[in-house]
Amino acid sequence: MKKAVRLLKEEAEPIARLSGNDRERTVGWVYLWNSSELSVLWLDEQVPAGSIEPPLHPEVLAEAKSSTPVKVIEYLEALSSGGEHTQISRP
Description:
The chain is an alpha+beta fold. The protein contains 2 helices and 4 strands; from the N terminus they run E-E-E-E-H-H. It has a 4-stranded antiparallel beta sheet with strand order 3-2-1-4, covered by helices on one side. Strand 2 (26-33) and strand 3 form a beta hairpin. The termini are far apart.
């Protein structure tokens, strides 16, 4: 019987920039961990993200679903699809 192997989060790299509604101010970074988990490093928690650059590929989001909280996936999907940013609630 095979055992499930869970990778520890040991290393991450920034894969996308979150900017404010003005698209000039960086408010956070999206990191991809070696475990496929996505996480957000907020630089300014008071300013909502208005856009993500580059948008995350659906394959990256799909792979991250097994190890990333649902609210984070939904938030990043909404930003990546160019949804109405004022209605996206931060996780």
